[in-house]
């Protein structure tokens, strides 16, 4: 039996439903809400807040726990979001050990490697984590990574796997990275060629299944092979780009953050300027292979969105509070004002 925290919403619901549909997989959803998505009826539910001590009872009888009770959406109240993310992760680790769970799978992001000009392309599973801890969800992810390292040593009977997916695309995607494709324009930084890499939620679920089966110890990357160039992304997403010099983009992001118009930090722009493409070699060696290419993952995602509702939100500067969407919108507004003057 596999217990999935955060199964009531977002990517957690997407993954739990897919795991439950796999042969021989018995899934228990652990969340304070029950997923409304089609397919959720096949999941057994234990309705409890994953960040409370009561979660240990929800893990009773589970062979493995998959922790997806993680809020990656840009939030205005970052302090509360960070407390929730940290509390849920710590409670899940402690409860997993107390309940006698044999395998814990934590999901973070390939963003923990950092976006640097000197990054190898691709980054392997053993590369150091060079992201800068800061007051964003990236800081939460790095905290979970640190928790995974200490837990593997502290709880001897608990095997810990950390999966680091590229940008996850699926119906429940709520991250700032995914929100870029809900904006009317994509942002391109002059002089930098973004390398886009994705992880379809189906492939994240199959990677988790491999980890649950004991095929992976330690950390492993999850992604479609290779990457897409900017022109490919624009064509598939059906969006053009607005190009800004790095100096102007950074200054705009800083101003928006200072005015509390977005909770995201200007440093997120690094992920548009520098490569952070990963190689899922460890998963491949365990027999995993993705079912979607990067192009497939992006096409599925943009095809599933209601462009009228999401596009309108982005135009008003509210695409999940994502910095990149707001910068693009701000630049368009400035250009329109210049034309009228």
Strand arrangement within the widest β-sheet reads: 3-2-1-4-5-6-10
What count of structural domains? 1
Q: Give the low-confidence spans.
A: 306-322
Strand % is 5-15%
Mean pLDDT: 88
CATH-wise, what's the superfamily? Answer: NAD(P)-binding Rossmann-like Domain
CATH topology: Rossmann fold
Structural class: alpha/beta
Number of strands: 11
> Largest beta sheet, briefly?
7 strands, parallel
Distance between the termini: 65 Å
CATH architecture: 3-Layer(aba) Sandwich
Relative helix content: 40-55%
Anisotropy-based shape: globular
Provide a concise account of the structure shown:
With 341 residues, this protein is an alpha/beta fold.
Structure description:
- This protein has helices spanning 10-20, 55-58, 78-98, 137-154, 176-179, 201-212, 230-237, 246-258, 270-273, 281-285, 294-304, 307-315, 323-340, and strands at residues 2-5, 27-31, 44-47, 64-67, 103-107, 159-165, 167-169, 186-189, 198-200, 218-222, 241-244.
- The chain is an alpha/beta fold.
- The chain has one domain: Rossmann fold, CATH 3.40.50.720.
- The strands form three sheets. Strands 3-2-1-4-5-6-10 form a seven-stranded parallel β-sheet, with helices on both faces.
- Helix 3 links the parallel strand 4 and strand 5.
- Helix 1 crosses helix 6 and helix 7 (230-237) packs parallel to helix 11 (294-304).
- The protein starts with a strand and ends with a helix.
Element layout with pairings:
Layout (H helix, E strand, L loop, with lengths): L1 E4 L4 H11 L6 E5 L12 E4 L7 H4 L5 E4 L10 H21 L4 E5 L29 H18 L4 E7 L1 E3 L6 H4 L6 E4 L8 E3 H12 L5 E5 L7 H8 L3 E4 L1 H13 L11 H4 L7 H5 L8 H11 L2 H9 L7 H18 L1
Helix pairs in contact: 1-6, 3-4, 7-11, 8-13
């Amino acid at each position: 039996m596999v217990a999935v925290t955060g199964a009531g919403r977002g990517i957690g619901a997407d993954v739990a439903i897919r795991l439950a549909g796999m042969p021989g997989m018995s899934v228990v959803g652990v969340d304070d809400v029950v997923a409304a998505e089609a397919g959720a009826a096949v999941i057994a539910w234990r309705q409890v807040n994953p960040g409370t001590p009561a979660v240990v009872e929800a893990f009773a009888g589970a062979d493995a726990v998959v922790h997806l009770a993680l809020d990656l959406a840009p939030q205005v109240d970052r302090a509360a979001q960070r407390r929730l993310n940290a509390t849920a992760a710590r409670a899940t680790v402690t409860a997993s050990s107390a309940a006698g769970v044999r395998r814990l799978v934590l999901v973070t992001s390939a963003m923990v490697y950092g976006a640097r000009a000197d990054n190898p392309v691709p980054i392997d599973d053993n590369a150091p984590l060079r992201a800068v801890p800061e007051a964003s969800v990236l800081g939460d992810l790095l905290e979970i990574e640190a928790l995974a390292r200490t837990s593997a040593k502290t709880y001897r009977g608990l095997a810990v796997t950390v999966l680091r997916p590229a940008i996850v695309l699926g119906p429940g995607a709520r991250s700032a990275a995914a929100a870029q494709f809900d904006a009317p324009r994509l942002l391109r930084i002059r002089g930098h060629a973004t390398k886009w890499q994705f992880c379809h939620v189906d492939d994240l679920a199959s990677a988790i299944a491999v980890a649950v089966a004991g095929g992976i110890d330690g950390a492993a990357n999850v992604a479609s092979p290779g990457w897409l160039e900017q022109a490919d992304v624009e064509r598939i997403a059906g969006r053009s780009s607005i190009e800004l010099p790095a100096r102007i983009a950074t200054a705009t992001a800083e101003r928006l953050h200072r005015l509390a118009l977005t909770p995201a930090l200007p440093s997120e722009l690094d992920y548009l300027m520098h490569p952070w493409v990963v190689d899922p070699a460890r998963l491949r060696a365990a027999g995993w292979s993705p079912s979607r290419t990067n192009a497939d993952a992006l096409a599925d995602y943009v095809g599933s969105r209601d462009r009228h509702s999401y596009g309108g939100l982005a135009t008003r500067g509210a695409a999940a509070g994502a910095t990149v969407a707001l910068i693009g919108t701000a630049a368009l507004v400035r250009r329109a004002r210049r034309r009228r003057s």
